[in-house]
């Protein structure tokens, strides 16, 4: 039986030592990784290779690879184009510090324009 009921998490303890700027950078990196994971799973669920998904979106395969690795800052237009070609749209929520949604904006582009290369 464990005599120490307190759980120990080195990562949380380490993050607790971050400055405000480091916490913000960490949050941005975490969000980029989460988005990359979502993009990967969406493509996988549709049974597409990176090359096939890139062709649908009119992008290079390397661009899809970068999106799925969170290897670069994603341009909203590129993300919109890629997700639109896969049948998805983007919705952006602006939240106040308490987490209450202050505004929501739908960002969409008709897939037919993307798929036709126009």
Give structural notes.
- This protein is mainly alpha-helical.
- The chain has a single domain, classed as 434 Repressor (Amino-terminal Domain) (Orthogonal Bundle).
- It has 6 helices and 2 strands, in the order αααααββα.
- A two-stranded antiparallel sheet has the order 1-2.
- β1 (90-95) and β2 (101-107) form a beta hairpin.
- The model is unreliable at 110-118 (pLDDT under 50).
**Using only CA atoms, what is the Rg?**
19 Å
Strand order in the sheet with the most strands: 1-2
Query: How much helix, percentage-wise, in residues?
Result: 55-70%
Tell me, briefly, the overall form. Answer: globular
Helix count from the secondary structure assignment: 6
Low-confidence stretches: 110-118
Largest sheet: 2 strands, antiparallel
Mean pLDDT: 83
Distance between the termini: 66 Å
Number of domains: 1
Structural class per helix/strand content?
A: mainly alpha
Classify the beta-strand content into a percent band: 5-15%
Order of helices and strands: HHHHHEEH
Please name the CATH topology: 434 Repressor (Amino-terminal Domain)
CATH superfamily: lambda repressor-like DNA-binding domains
Q: Any idea of the CATH class?
A: Mainly Alpha
Report the CATH architecture. Orthogonal Bundle
The total count of strands amounts to 2
């Amino acid at each position: 039986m464990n005599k120490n009921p307190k759980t120990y998490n080195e990562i949380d303890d380490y993050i607790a030592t971050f400055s405000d700027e480091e916490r913000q950078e960490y949050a941005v990196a975490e969000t980029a990784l989460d988005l990359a994971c979502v993009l990967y799973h969406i493509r996988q669920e549709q049974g597409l290779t990176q090359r096939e998904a890139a062709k649908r979106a009119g992008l290079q395969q390397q661009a899809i690879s970068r999106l799925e690795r969170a290897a670069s800052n994603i341009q909203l237009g590129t993300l919109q184009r890629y997700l639109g070609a896969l049948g998805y749209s983007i919705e952006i929520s602006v939240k106040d510090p308490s987490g209450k949604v202050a505004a929501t904006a739908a960002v969409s582009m008709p897939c037919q324009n993307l798929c036709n290369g126009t």
